[in-house]
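Late entry, written up from scratch paper. The run itself happened at the end of the previous shift, but nothing got recorded in the book at the time, so transcribing now.
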Amino acid sequence: MKLDHKKVTDSIEAVRHFNRFYTQRIGVLHKHLLQTPFSLVEGRVLRELADTQKTTATALRSKLALDRGYLSRILRGFAARRLIQITYCKNDDRQKFLELTGKGRRAHSLLNARAQHHAASILDKLSRADQKRLVATMRTIEKLMTSKSS
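Output as recorded:
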């Protein structure tokens, strides 16, 4: 079977176009995510820290596929702002556990509330039927992009 390069090129451009459209629509291109002092990546790190009791930088790096140095700078900034607490493992001083402080939990709660509001504002512009179609399509995209053949 011969590849039709025109169709492949059209598909690639369609994916790139959708990515540009979607990132602009959801506001991730702004320096500060949802009018908070956090970037998109910092927001994701906060979310992961909020979803776990204690974790390590290694686990975060693996989960988010982040560069070690980049994550280290984010965590140093969080520590300086007193958003995280770092404790050392009793059995291995090289291993550090990270968890959100009360201030970090409040920062995450604000970001989470604004993300909820932003998502609701997107859905509110659609009819109930279109909301269902949009969510189903998003689930389809996620499923296709995480399938074994991808």
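The mean pLDDT is 90.
(Scratch paper discarded after transcription.)
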